[in-house]
Design goal:
Elements (H helix, E strand, L loop, with lengths): L9 E4 L5 E7 L2 E8 L9 H12 L2 E6 L16 H14 L9 E6 L1 H17 L4 E7 L5 H4 L3 H8 L4 E3 L8 E3 L1 H8 L14 E6 L8 H9 L5 E6 L9 H15 L4
């Protein structure tokens, strides 16, 4: 069976006037929103697979590039979790979602898993539990500034300097900017209970060299809801982008949306 055509990339002004790139497919049920990882964008294989699944199944879906990433305007050096959270909420609102009438199913990959929790918290606070249909974390990395850097690296960032690390996915080193670090340190979540009651599925590879799989266990404990499951993929890496990993992701979406017809 031929795959259905995907929506074109469109652009919208961010709350502070930057041009944000996104792809929005109209459809039934909760709006599926994919949040990519650090220095990633909506052109990744997982994001595009989710959009294709949504289009083929008549479901609403939103992909996006944070400011400073992908095809969106702005400088990556100016990006923070707070800024990107505002952009995500803005695009969700523009799509007519994030309400009891049209809730969202948030999918967050790596850093996007941290952002997913921040977006979910803002939606629940503003619109109530009914605004959130569920969440799926893919190697979710909440609080990674607290556990992902050693004291020497933290001192560099706290001193206002850019930290550069080896990048296993490309030739250029990965920068962490002091503005991102300072903002993130004010957004730490795992030390307190998270008042999120929606169904949550956390997918994590046990060969993840970037985010320890135990992070998903910690997150499961922190979430207030009872309908929380962790799926560990014993031979899975950080990206979880092999065909069998993407099949697991799509079947997880299908399971969470099964009751929303």
């Amino acid at each position: 069976m031929a795959e259905n055509a995907l929506p074109d990339i469109a652009f919208a002004a961010s709350p502070d006037g930057l041009s944000l790139a996104y792809r929005h497919a109209a459809g039934s049920g909760p709006l599926i929103v994919f949040l990519p990882g650090y220095m990633s964008d909506m052109a990744g294989s997982k994001a595009e697979a989710v959009l294709q699944w949504a289009v083929d199944n008549g479901r609403g879906c939103l992909l996006l590039d944070y400011s400073g990433c992908g095809k969106s305007a702005g400088r990556f050096a100016d990006g923070t979790l707070s800024r990107w959270r505002g952009e995500v909420l803005h695009l969700i609102e523009q799509a007519g979602a994030g309400t009891a009438e049209t809730p969202v199913l948030l999918i967050g990959s790596s850093m996007g898993g941290w952002l997913m929790l921040l977006v979910a918290g803002a939606l629940v606070q503003a619109e109530g539990d009914e605004a959130l249909a569920g969440m799926i974390g893919i190697a979710a990395a909440p609080d990674f500034t607290s556990w992902g850097y050693d004291e020497k690296q933290r001192a560099v960032l706290a001193g206002g300097k850019v930290l550069y690390e080896d990048n296993p996915y490309g030739p250029e080193p990965t920068p962490t900017h002091p503005g991102f670090f300072a903002d993130a340190e004010a957004q730490l979540l795992l030390s307190d209970p998270l008042a999120i009651h929606a169904p949550v599925r956390l997918l994590h590879g046990q060969r993840d060299a970037d985010v320890p799989w135990e992070t998903s266990i910690r997150l499961a404990h922190a979430l207030a809801g009872e309908d929380v499951r962790v799926a560990l993929v014993k031979d899975g890496d950080h990206r979880l982008s092999r065909p069998q990993d993407i099949a697991l992701l799509l079947s997880t979406i299908e399971e969470l949306l099964a009751s929303d017809h």
